[in-house]
Amino acid sequence: MDDTTSAEAVPLRNATLDRLPEDVERPRYDRGALTPGIVHIGVGNFHRAHQAWYLHRLMQEGQAHDWAIVGAGVRAGDAAMRERLKAQDCLSTLIELSPEGTSAEICGSMIDFLPVQDDNAALIAQMSEPAIRIVSLTVTEGGYFFNPATGEFDPSHPDIRHDADHPDTPRTAFGAIVAALARRRQAGHGPFTVQSCDNLRGNGAIVRETVVSLARLSDSGLADWIDTKVSFPNSMVDCIVPATGPDEIAKARALGIEDAAPVTHENFRQWVIEDNFCAGRPDWDRVGATFTDAVHDYEAMKIRILNAGHQVLANAGELLSVPTIADCMGHRLISRFFEKVEREEIVPYVHAVPDMEPQDYAKLIERRFSNPAIRDTTRRVAFDGSSRHTGFVLPILRDALEVGGSVRGLALVEALWARMCAGVREDNSLIEPNDPFWTHLHGVAEAARDNPQIWLEQQQIYGELAGNREFAEPFGIWLQLIWAKGTEAALEAYLKD
């Protein structure tokens, strides 16, 4: 696609679609004739590049025009996204970045974005409408109110306590879902499917536990009805989608589109879904999604090799001031560290899926991470380590320990995270807070400099692992070596074995 000067960029609106450059794919369907069938909570870049894109492609085939998406949010930041998207008729520019070149298309499957309110009144009202048959979510791995050490729902969280005491004016997405289901039950409208699109193994089971447990705190009869009638399909989602900043907005402008919230993404998508929808669903499989009963195998492969692999790279990259994941893959030590940990300590604990062996998937991930067109920052990937290490890395470590496998590389991954949370890179630049629990993590990381065991005694993260010598001893050795001689010295020591 040829670059276009910024002066020629067309403001993205319904009314300007026919003025966009000819090589920009745009909706071929009548957006004015679409009707809503899905409410999606958490309209970030990933949702727009993934679920919304699959639905858009189905609409391009003349299908699913009664399944349009109504966006929603429950956080302050969602209001800013709403303002940007509403100003452009909820259209999004999706810019595919492949090593071979760049292309763009306009995704039109979202038709509205609800006001973001403290009591979630508009959200509850929309979900109560019988036309809404799916409520989907991307609220991040740490947004499900689970204790990461026990893997159980946390009823003591202040927002959960508020929603239990004030079920008609909830703060959380899950409280709003419970309130809407209560209205539908009372009105005799029947339930909707609740569909998590977050990177969690068993995400359907987790969202079921969250919703049912919250409902039970205020209405046990409603909780039983939800548990029996509502569907919570498990799914695996996959597409690398960097955050949007000035560079991405400029990239859209260079392509001839004035978009306040464009999305860049890699040239790969995967969506594997359990076919468990209580009120119907779009035929996403017509445009590349996979419906299967073996979702857990797919998601285990992806979460362990890709998501845990991201954590292998990101903390080392942050400490060494390596700006992006692709740059990490080009680093002489980080890339070899990644390859060795994947081969020796991750891939052995992953099962094959149809048409894909774990070692082949690992090679695919290496190629995807190495795509120089994807400027996916180490900071973004390192965000919320308290959820991502507990959800992605530590389950592999536990499996390895159970069978007597090596965990030296995974112990080094954890030591690099502990060092990163001290908040200073090795060039003395500051690492800005990058975790919901940063203040706590920062204090523990400072104390662990002299006593590494203090880091492992965070029960909410490590649980019983703190007392496992096969893990705790190499962790302590690595953390002391990183503090004494630096990240590169630790990586070199690991790679010599």
Automatic annotation (TrEMBL):
Q: Which UniProt keywords apply?
A: Oxidoreductase
Which InterPro entries does its entry note?
6-PGluconate_DH-like_C_sf (IPR008927), 6PGD_dom2 (IPR013328), Mannitol_DH (IPR000669), Mannitol_DH/Oxidoreductase (IPR050988), Mannitol_DH_C (IPR013118), Mannitol_DH_N (IPR013131), NAD(P)-bd_dom_sf (IPR036291)
Q: Where is the Mannitol dehydrogenase C-terminal domain?
A: 295-475
Annotated Pfam families = Mannitol_dh, Mannitol_dh_C
Outline the extent of the Mannitol dehydrogenase N-terminal domain: 37-285
Q: What protein is this chain from?
A: Mannitol dehydrogenase family protein
